[in-house]
């Protein structure tokens, strides 16, 4: 069993399929999602700077992968390291006035277990009904009968997406890349 907190060598690198090209400049549609803290969040209604990182699904230690070939699916492996990256840099995002949210299609109870286990200090949003994914036409993949979000991130201000990170690789460096872009935007 592989350690879900580490990025193994030799993962296939996801290619830019153009599925996120339409997102820069988009006004986020008003869709209410359940957060791991029990609140209802509408990303379109949040003033200021918001950082959202989306991922296929986190695993749980000791449980098997969703499929035997999970690591061979470009962009599938690395959700826990991506989340931990945003966790570890959360204070720095906050110092820049940015609110951080995770996003996946897993149900809130599954996400809450992960948030508690990894000590994640920000809400993770559940799009288990794919309402936001469909409204925004987010990149998805179908695995084992489930529709999962492809790994990506975006920076939005006052409900409008300013910068998109897609595809994301390696996932454990995504938070640092987003933070650097946010710093550059603030200093510009």
UniProtKB/TrEMBL annotation:
User: Species name for this entry?
Assistant: Vulcanimicrobium alpinum
* Occurrences of domain Thioredoxin (ranges): 22-187
Q: Name one GO biological process term.
A: cellular response to oxidative stress
Q: Which Gene3D superfamilies match?
A: Glutaredoxin
Highest taxon of the lineage:
Bacteria
Q: Does the keyword Disulfide bond apply?
A: yes
Q: Which GO terms describe its cellular component?
A: cytoplasm
The entry's protein name is: Peroxiredoxin
GO molecular-function annotation terms?
A: thioredoxin peroxidase activity
The record ties this protein, via CDD domains, to:
PRX_BCP
- Keyword annotations from UniProtKB, A to Z: Antioxidant, Disulfide bond, Oxidoreductase, Peroxidase, Redox-active center
InterPro entries documented for this protein? Peroxiredoxin_BCP/PrxQ (IPR050924), Redoxin (IPR013740), Thioredoxin-like_sf (IPR036249), Thioredoxin_domain (IPR013766)
């Amino acid at each position: 069993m592989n350690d879900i907190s580490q990025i193994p060598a030799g993962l296939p690198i996801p290619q830019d399929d153009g599925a996120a090209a339409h997102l820069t400049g988009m006004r986020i549609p008003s869709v209410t999602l359940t957060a791991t803290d029990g609140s209802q969040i509408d990303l379109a209604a949040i003033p200021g700077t918001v950082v959202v990182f989306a991922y296929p699904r986190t695993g749980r230690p000791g449980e098997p992968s969703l499929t035997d070939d999970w690591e061979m699916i470009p962009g599938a492996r690395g959700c826990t390291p991506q989340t931990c990256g945003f966790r570890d840099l959360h204070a720095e995002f906050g110092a820049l006035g940015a609110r951080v949210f995770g996003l996946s299609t897993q149900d809130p109870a599954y996400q809450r277990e992960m948030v508690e286990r990894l000590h994640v200090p920000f809400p993770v949003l559940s799009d288990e009904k794919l309402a936001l994914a469909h409204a925004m036409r987010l990149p998805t993949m179908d695995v084992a009968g489930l529709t999962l979000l492809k790994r990506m991130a975006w920076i939005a201000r006052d409900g409008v997406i300013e910068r998109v990170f897609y595809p994301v690789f390696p996932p454990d460096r995504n938070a640092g890349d987003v933070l650097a872009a946010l710093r550059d935007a603030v200093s510009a």
